[in-house]
Amino acid sequence: MTRGKQKIEAQKRNADKNQKAKGSQLEARAVGLKVVCPICKAQLANQNQLVDHYGSKHPKEKPPESS
């Protein structure tokens, strides 16, 4: 029965090691979102995404210049 006990202990260790981190990723997501659309206040990661956003959501407007 020694092997049975080792197997159970190994399963517990692997379950603890592979367990996903609990909690929200909102803080990590907020750090990555640096550009805000001045029209609809959508948060975007970079200037290229802002240009794409303007093309799809605000086609009549011109995207602001990168600063």
UniProtKB/TrEMBL annotation:
Residues 35-63 form the C2H2-type domain. PROSITE patterns: ZINC_FINGER_C2H2_1, ZINC_FINGER_C2H2_2. Transmembrane segments: none annotated. Keywords: Cytoplasm, Metal-binding, Nucleus, Zinc, Zinc-finger. Residues 1-24 are annotated as: Disordered. It comes from the Eukaryota. The keyword Ribonucleoprotein does not apply. It is found in: Cytoplasm; Nucleus. Pfam families: zf-met (PF12874). Gene3D superfamilies: At2g23090-like. Residues 1-19 have a biased composition (Basic and acidic residues). The keyword Membrane does not apply. InterPro entries: MBS1/2-like, ZNF706/At2g23090_sf, Znf_C2H2_type. This is C2H2-type domain-containing protein.
